[in-house]
Amino acid sequence: MSFAVIQMNSSAEVSNNLASAGRLLKQAAEQGAKLAVLPENFAAMGCKNLLALGRAELLGSGTILAWLRQTARELGLWIVAGTLPLPPDGQPEGKPRACSLLLDDEGRTVARYDKLHLFDVDVSDTQGQYRESDNYAHGEIPLVVADTPVGRLGMTVCYDLRFPELYTALRLAGAELISSPSAFTEVTGAAHWQTLIRARAIETQCYILAAAQGGEHPGGRQTHGHSSIVDPWGRLLCEQARGEAALLARRDADEQTAIRRRMPVLNHRRFSVPRLVTGTTE
């Protein structure tokens, strides 16, 4: 079965973004995709009041979640909903998380992954600082893996790509594909994007579904684009440099099984990174 990654150039205008996403998801479904991945911040790139937006969605008065459910049902399509700002379930006053939802083809939420690693970096002298933690809280559940029509899906977001131990853990949890909705800056994307997505595919022997933002956004932010699907051997199956796109590829389950059998890297592991928990004792 086929899957798709969607590339967008989103703005802060939710209605315009949803219209663009709907058109691209329809294109993917008409070409045979059973699952599609939207990019990070697909609905509200540069929105100034994330707290209010997320609270409205959680309380049922927003437009994004309702639109996602309806679109999934109408297209008969599983959707990885990039990210949207959502507070923790049952906590409408809480600081939003960068939340990636998996919806099935009847519009039901199957899984929720809240971005674990937040982008607090000094990109360059010209690109300036990014402090994602000013607006978002860290996710608390690191491993989210769910069954889909195209295989067992592990969920990540953007900056997570720089933390390979997360991807190894998803493979150990049974992932066959891993979604990575992203909005890499032009500077970091040009330097590292393709290297990172291919490395994560090779080391996990998973398909990497890397849906990206590509273009200029509110405030002058430039994103790198180059949405891609990478196979378990590290081959780039499709790529779009800039502009909107719906890119499709097919999973070859037999080949993936053969790759894992011929090179059984999980069986060869002699070292793993322990999870260190620090705190105070009384």
TrEMBL record:
Q: Name one GO molecular function term.
A: hydrolase activity, acting on carbon-nitrogen (but not peptide) bonds, in linear amides
Gene3D superfamilies, sorted: Carbon-nitrogen hydrolase
Output the InterPro entries linked to this UniProt entry.
C-N_Hydrolase, C-N_Hydrolase_sf, Nit1/2_C-N_Hydrolase, UPF0012_CS
Give the record's keywords alphabetically: Hydrolase
Using the record's annotation, list all stretches that form the CN hydrolase domain. 1-253
Q: Which family does it belong to?
A: Belongs to the carbon-nitrogen hydrolase superfamily. NIT1/NIT2 family.
Protein name per Swiss-Prot or TrEMBL: Putative amidohydrolase
Q: What organism does the UniProt record list as the source?
A: Azomonas macrocytogenes (Azotobacter macrocytogenes)
